[in-house]
Amino acid sequence: MDASIAPASRAAVVTPNDSAIVGARALYIGTAGDVAIAVRRDMDPVIFRSVPAGTILPVHAAIVALTGTTASNIIALF
To answer: What are the backbone dihedrals phi and psi of residue 66, each rounded to the nearest 5 degrees, phi first?
Structure first.
């Protein structure tokens, strides 16, 4: 199966940080709130507003920034 469309095979807890590289292919949001994501480390984060609990955001997340993130219990999917 093409790795770009295969289901996630690993997961890890995310602690939002303005500079730490996560490199996830998707994020599970456990507790509702805003999520600030930089899709590449050389780009400014974009804030996904009011993400409901239980949502899987199918977006590459190089960085999950602390600044702008109010959601919690975030899981990175690889």
So the answer is: -70, -45
